Amino acid sequence: MQGPAIGFEHVSLALGGAQILQDVNFTVAAGEIHCLIGPNGGGKTSLVRALLGQVPHTGRISIAWRDGETIGYVPQGLDFDKTLPVTISDFMALVFQKRRPAFIGLSNRNRALADAALDRVGLLGKRRAKLGSLSGGERQRVLFAQALIPPPALLVLDEPMTSMDEVGGERFEQIIDEVSAEGVTVLWIAHDLAQVRAMADTVTCVNRTILFSGPPAEVLADFNAEVLFSAAALARATAS
Amino acid sequence: MSNLYEWVRESLMALAYEGTLPVAFQYGFVINALLCALLIGPVLGGVGTMVVTKRMAFFSQAIGNAAMTGVAIGVLLGESYTEPYVSMFGFCVLFGLLLNYTKGRTKLSADTLIGVFLSISLAVGASLLLFVSARVNTHILEAVLFGSVLTVSDIDMNVLLVVTLAIAALGIPLFNRLLLASFNPSLAEVRGVRVQLLEYVFVVMITLLTVACLKIVGAVLVEALLLIPAAAARNLIGSMRGFVFWSMAISTVSCIAGVLIPMQLDLPIPSGGAIIMVAASIFVLTTFIRITVSRFREA
After folding, report:
1. Could you tell me if residue B3 is inside a domain?
2. Residue B79 backbone zone (phi > 0: left; psi -120 to 50: alpha; other: beta)
3. ipTM of the complex model
């Protein structure tokens, strides 16, 4: 399998009178791990939402899909009542089971798929645990598991490591390596520069527009986390 | 359908005269009310779990209040004051759709906006009802507000049957998609869920159910039957399966007991009030169990 290439051409986005993205141009090569970095509020999530077709934008975003290919999406988190009696298996049914309602349970085929994905993220033993009783990192792993069903050609990750525990982080990196080896294109909003340096093929820095894009060894040589998270420091660093 | 209802009524009444069933079953209107209870119990219980999950409890209250306005408009327009369904369905569906439309287009939080709509519907409904009360028997208005087993007709049962079947036909296959958006709308959209369209579908489902249940439970109390069984089930249950099935069971038992107990004990209280008091008693019991029995504390 070879995941799709993605092209952003002159993409601009304004919401509520504020310019979120301005003339964004970059490409994501087929099958690469491409990290998006930048300060909070710099437009990374908006860029991903534009890619997913969820916000109106100008310019052109192209995805070179082949027949039957799908997208796996790991959002930043879930917004729900933590006391709800919804188990991990129930949630998996809500996400990817089409017609059979979650309260009837997963079909045998779907249970096998869900169990395999949960096993991959190390949560099979907790499949009957309530979603609300999990730690933030564990919930993030559940979100990662659902993105693997059906096997995606493009995996979009929106800051999946924000509340990830150490075990989850290691599993996460391992699975990213595995899916990348299978040819999946990975577009990943990341905060940890050490992780980006270690895993990304290409990194793009977004702060309303593209500040730089290229292999981490080249473009991140002079950057540290402090610069990345401070919009002012980032502006100074990229200007110099 | 009337022949079927008649056959059921006559069969059960015969069993009551033989002494096989309680004396209350000698009355056709009690059997009508029980048939309705068997229809609305499971549906209200099931839809209630969706209302709780989607955090739309306040919304269903607003629809209940809007139904009062619908009744008053029906009387003003000359509809039958015992069955003003065209006005009730028409006004409530419009009200629900307008509320949902406005929710997506203002910066107000959902609970604030629903509170505003709820207040408007209550004020307009109360004013119009008092205005038309001179034209109709006041007991008709009481029946709309609090439910009355005496006023259930074959038409009411037909309406309820059609609405409950439609809601089951929509709600079961759309259950996962209707709920996923309440966890993360972006994820739902990536999964192919038409989030906005399904919000409207759910609003129409709640509206139709609320209006169809008015004769038994009443406009003021129908929202309680969407919430209390689900809340009672949630006290003891840790999975979606238990949540839905226990909520359906509690709702059904409440409806049947709420119809039968006032008849058996000769209590002059409306069916809606009795149904909610039974449901509330079950809620109190499950809350007590949750507090006192350690294995339920983590449910």
Report:
1. no
2. beta
3. 0.90
